[in-house]
Amino acid sequence: MTAFGYIPRDSVLHRLTGASKLIMTVALSIAAMITFDTRFLVFVIIISLVMFGLSKIRFSELKVLLALITLFLIINNVAIYLFAPEQGTLIYNTRNELFHIAGRYSVTAEQLFYQLNVSLKYFAIVPVALIFFLTTEPGEFASSLNALKVHYKIAFAVSLSLRYIPDVQRAYREISQAQQARGVDISRKASLRRRLAGILAILFPLVFSSIDKIEQISNAMELRSFGRMKKRTWYAARSFSKRDFVFVGISVLFVLLSVLTLVVNGGRFYNPF
What predicted TM-score, i.e. pTM, was given to this entire model? Predict the structure, then answer.
């Protein structure tokens, strides 16, 4: 499993500046969140998957992360149905019942269609977000943020956060292996209680080691007078190229198309009923 962080590749998306990828991610996320038009969401998903292919990052490198996202999506859909089983009928003002379960719980075509659109939003946003995190070198991203007039202290904090994600994952694996060598069993063969106790035995050292590393970084930055100057230069700074402007322009176009669906549908929801 690859750590969730920057994965170096030679691709067109890796050659974009961090700022342009951030704008692209935010723009496509806003476009997907604005509307519940199924046709538009499917189009965004196709574009997102094409971009993911261009990044040359393999889904096999993200199996655990994708499994967690899928689990969260399932839990979210179950929660929506449990708390609002008639939300779809309220939105589309029709009721086509497929079958009755019990009490107030029935499965309607409108509810299924509504929850399908909710799921499509995840599939539209997740690939773009992954592209941003996996193709953006933290130092270069910090310099790009600063170029967008974000204060360099905030940009540097974001950069440290992105750099620290793989370190936390690496530390977790090392502590886990050390604890298993001492007899702590967190495999599927162990009971749920023992597995939870084993995970806690890993998390506590991980938290304390993380706090210790944060203190070391803070002391190092303070010794180097970080923050004393109003501005700073960046080793990894890059200016916008034509490629960046093209991708940013396409992203803004998607936001405009999303707003256009509101006019075409007379609201956020596309109603096939």
Answer: 0.73
